[in-house]
Design a protein that fits this description.
- This protein folds into 2 domains: 165 residues, 3-Layer(aba) Sandwich (Rossmann fold); 203 residues, Dehydroquinate synthase-like, alpha domain (Up-down Bundle), CATH 1.20.1090.10.
- Helix content is 55%, strand content 13%.
- It has 17 helices and 9 strands.
- A hairpin with a 2-residue loop joins strand 7 and strand 8.
- Helix 8 runs parallel beside helix 12.
- The longest helix is centred in the middle third of the chain and has 23 residues.
- The chain binds fe (ii) ion.
- Fe (ii) ion binds next to helix 7 and helix 11.
Length: 377
């Protein structure tokens, strides 16, 4: 991963100058294509390379987007994939590469098998938002019939990332806020995950510290140095997550995003606050390592003048309340809402959480998340 102070045009010219392959697929989002004119720079590069440009118009990384991309590039047969965009573009590009040796007719079968997928494509990821660290992980989120799956690729040295901090200025403040909250939650989950080593935890603490230090400068888009440091920290968290994976807050968030279109970072932070509070309130039941981790996380928030993680969330989530209105009215009308929500949580991911939770306790934590929203009124 490298951080560049150049703009996207200059980075693409430099990057393509270093690529030897001829068939290069460039993937971006419809939103970015409307804000950024790729045609001029790509045309200038076409004398040296065969370039196919595809703009993706999906809100979520779903299997249909990957199938469409596969159909669109059937004749072109790319050797290199350059993906420029937010989380959805990253995930669709990764899934496209991971599934490139699989016939479309076998996609669902391969997804169910949960095997590590090898591929021959070179993948270069250029994120426009910094939060998920998707450019650093070998996991890709893929929705099939509204249900979230996780694909794992063995891309190793075939996978590179380029960070251009100023690209985040092309996103809205809400998009940067959602991504920023996602990064903070991911750093916390990486530190807490039972799959993490002592080194993973130490790195996660360090990056959480960096994220909080540069959070406002990144979200407000007011400080390019802060944006650059935030981009690097969120990408580092992505690397740590290759081994720690996500835990309970992420597992509980996907239902909100797929059912109510709540941006990923907002959905995760709504649940993260309550899961963390549950750990903090049950410190005596945690084994020593996890207890120290919870207290160390609390210390990092204090260092940055936030009395607690929940306090931090309150400040930044209150302004995003409108995104939750549909979910809140769903919860009011449907007596079974929280039970359906709990039922949609992947139990596998709950096992990464540092405390075994009974079903009734998960239900209580989800109610507490709704309580946080109500406290904004
Ligand atoms: Fe995330």
């Amino acid at each position: 991963m490298s951080v560049s102070s150049l703009g996207l045009n200059e980075v693409l010219v430099k990057l393509f100058g270093e690529l030897h392959s001829e068939n290069i697929l460039v993937i971006s989002s419809k939103g970015l294509t409307e804000r950024f004119d790729f045609s001029e720079v790509l045309n200038s590069l076409r004398s040296e390379h065969q370039i196919e440009f595809v703009s993706i118009n999906s809100k979520l990384p779903d299997i249909e987007a990957v199938e469409r991309l596969r159909a669109q590039t059937r004749e072109f047969l790319p050797q290199i994939v350059v993906a420029i965009g937010g989380g959805t573009v990253m995930d669709v590009a990764k899934s496209f590469c991971f599934l490139s040796n699989t016939p479309i007719s076998r996609y669902r079968e391969v997804l169910a098998s949960k095997t590590i997928l090898s591929h021959n494509l070179q993948l270069i990821l250029i994120p426009t938002l910094f939060g998920s660290g998707a450019e650093s992980t070998r996991h890709a989120v893929l929705y099939v019939d509204g249900v979230k799956h996780s694909l794992v690729g063995s891309h190793g040295d075939k996978h590179g990332a380029l960070l251009i901090p100023e690209l985040a200025l092309s996103a809205t403040r809400d998009q940067r806020l959602s991504a920023g909250l996602d990064a903070v939650c991911q750093a916390i989950e990486a530190a807490l995950s039972v799959l993490g080593s002592v080194e993973d935890k130490e790195l996660a603490f360090k990056q959480l510290d960096n994220l909080l230090e540069n959070f406002e400068g990144y979200v407000e888009g007011s400080d390019l140095k802060a944006m650059s440091r935030f981009a690097k920290a969120s990408s580092e968290v992505g690397y740590i997550m290759n081994s720690t994976k996500t835990t309970a807050p992420h597992a509980a968030s996907y239902f909100l995003t797929s059912t109510y279109n709540i941006p990923h970072g907002f959905a995760v932070s709504l649940t993260a606050g309550s899961f963390f509070a549950n750990l903090f309130n049950n410190l005596s039941q945690l084994e020593e390592g996890s207890r120290k981790t919870v207290l160390a996380i609390q210390e990092i928030f204090l260092k940055h003048n936030y009395p607690s993680f929940e306090f931090f969330l309150r400040i930044f989530l209150e302004g995003a309340r409108d995104y939750f209105l549909q979910m809140e009215s769903g919860a009011e009308k449907d007596g079974q809402f929280v039970e359906s929500w709990r039922g949609a949580i992947d139990p596998d991911r709950l096992t990464n959480h540092p405390r075994i939770l009974e079903k009734s306790e998960v239900t209580e934590i989800l109610w507490n998340s709704i309580g946080l929203l109500k406290s904004f009124q």
